[in-house]
Amino acid sequence: MIGFIGIGIMGSRMSGRLLDAGHELIVYNRTQSKTAALIKKGALSADSPKDVGARANIVFTMLADPQAVDAVAYGNNGLLAGMKQGALWIDSSTISPTQSVKLANDAKHDGFRFLDAPVAGSTGPAEKGELIFFVGGESRDLEDARPLLSIMGKEIHHKGQNGAGTAMKLVNNLMLGQTVAAFSEALAFGESLGLDKADVIKSLFAGPTAAPILHFKESKLMKEDFENADFKVNSIYKDMELASEEAYKHGFALPLSNSVKAMYGLCQQQGKGDYDFATIYDFLKKK
C-alpha cells in the first residue's frame, strides 16, 4: 500500500500517476474534497496522517510549506505516530535542509526510513511523469523508492545524505525565480523601447539565453493571464526566503536573489500571492 499526503496542485497529479500505474493508494488531505477525484478512481481515504502511516508501507508527502510538514508529521494524529517499523517516508515538499535532517533523525529514532525528494517541474511535467527528483538519503532506501519515483519523474538525482535533496531544490528554485524575473524585465524593457512583445520573445528564444521554463511561460506572458497559476508567487517567495535563511546559516550572501525575492514580496503585497509567479512581468512593465 502506498500513502500520499497533500493532494494539491502537484500532489494530485503525482498521486494520480501512481494510481493509474496500478498501485493501491491511500490518500489524505486537510481539505478532504480535494481527494474526491482520486477516491472515485479507486484510492482509499484516510482520516488522518496517522491513519496513512498505519496502513501504508511507503508514504509520500507533498505539502505547501514547512509548517504544513510539521503539522502532518507530529502530534497524536501525525504521520510519525502511525508509521510501521521499517516503513519509508518520502517527503517531496520544499522545506529547508535543516528541517529535512531533523525529520530524518526523528524518523530514524522511531524506526522509520526517510528520504527528502523534492522535485523540479510544475503541473505539466507532473501530469506527464516528467518531474526531476532531487534525493537526499540512504542509497538502499532510494532503490526501494526508485520504481515509484520513475512513474512520476523522468530523472532521479541522488545528491547525498538527508538534506542534500532539499538543498538542491533551493538552489534550483533560487535560479528559477531569478530566471523568470530577468526575462520579464528584459521583455518589459523591450516593450518600453517600442518593440513588439511577440517579436521580442521570438528573438530572445532564438538566442542562447532562454531557459526551458521561459518557453513554458510564453503563453501566460503573451496573454497576461496570471490568475491561473502553475506555480504561485507565494510559493516562489517562500522558496527564495528558505534559501536566504539557509544561506545566512552558512555565512553566504545572496545579493541578486534577495533583490528578486523582494520583488515577489511586493507582488504579494499587491494581492497577487496566488497568481502565477510570472506575474512579476506585470509588476515590472511600464504602465
From TrEMBL:
EC code(s) of this entry: 1.1.-.-
Transmembrane intervals: none
Coiled coil: none
Database matches in InterPro entries: 6-PGluconate_DH-like_C_sf (IPR008927), 6PGD_dom2 (IPR013328), 6PGDH_NADP-bd (IPR006115), HIBADH-like_NADP-bd (IPR029154), HIBADH-related (IPR015815), HIBADH-related_NP60_sf (IPR051265), NAD(P)-bd_dom_sf (IPR036291)
6-phosphogluconate dehydrogenase NADP-binding domain ranges (all copies): 2-158
Residue ranges constituting the 3-hydroxyisobutyrate dehydrogenase-like NAD-binding domain according to the UniProt record: 163-283
Keywords: NAD, Oxidoreductase
GO molecular function per UniProt: oxidoreductase activity
Family assignment from sequence similarity: Belongs to the HIBADH-related family.
The protein's name: NAD(P)-dependent oxidoreductase
Organism expressing this protein natively: Sporolactobacillus shoreicorticis
